[in-house]
Design goal:
InterPro entries: Flavoprotein-like_sf, FMN_Rdtase-like_dom. By secondary structure, the protein is α/β, with parallel strands linked by helices. It has helices at about 15-30, 40-45, 60-70, 85-95, 120-135, 160-175, 180; strands spanning about 1-5, 35-40, 70-80, 110-115, 140, 145-150. Strands 1, 2, 3, 4, 5 and 6 form a 6-stranded parallel sheet that branches. α1 crosses α6. The two termini are about 15 Å apart.
């Protein structure tokens, strides 16, 4: 199975929240036999969404190929003012260029959703991502992970065992998802 880890944060620090979570999922999924691609928006060079452009930017073509070729996705974002990051939404909007493909958009992909916030409102970001994923014809796992950022790390600086357990469960559910494996058109 090919799995995409979509990091919707602009954070570039290797020890930052988004990279720590992304790396954990990468290691877990790779150990389970998946082929994993990490797509970090901070490094992607995706321009503002503009379908009036005569030529679609190369970075968008590459991104669309990565997203549509993956069997399953995990989307990660910090909560920004009640939703996912604007740059993440902008990137997902570019999937409109796949509307005429067969199948279009992210049809029958399974998407796991993770959002973190300093308080307890990370579910708002998950709801925003869920709406977009379903609009793109993807299936979302019924198990999502809203993270309270202040509880994510154990006192030793590593991921808290509770969150490791949650990330492990999401990884397992994603790999077992029949939509990701057998529901291709």
């Amino acid at each position: 199975m090919n799995v995409l880890i979509f990091n919707g944060a602009l954070e570039k620090r290797n020890t930052g929240t988004s990279k720590t979570i992304s790396n954990y999922f990468h290691n877990r999924l790779t150990d389970a036999g998946a082929v994993v691609t990490k797509f970090n928006l901070a490094d992607a060079g995706i321009p503002f969404f503009d379908l009036s452009l005569v030529n679609i930017p190369q970075s968008v073509k590459i991104m669309t190929g990565i997203f549509t070729e993956a069997d399953a996705h995990i989307w990660l974002t910090p909560l920004y003012h009640g939703g996912m990051t604007g740059i993440m939404k902008n990137c997902l909007d570019w999937l409109e260029i796949s509307s005429k493909a067969n199948p279009p958009y992210l049809t029958n992909k399974t998407v796991g959703l993770v959002c973190w916030a300093s308080g307890g409102h990370a579910m708002q970001g998950i709801n925003a991502m869920d709406a977009v994923a379903k609009s793109l014809r993807a299936w979302t796992l019924p198990y999502t992970i809203p993270v309270v950022r202040n509880d994510l790390f154990h006192t030793d600086g590593n991921l808290h065992p509770l969150y490791k357990e949650k990330f492990n469960l999401m990884s397992r559910l994603l790999l077992e998802s029949s939509h990701s494996i057998s529901a291709r058109p």
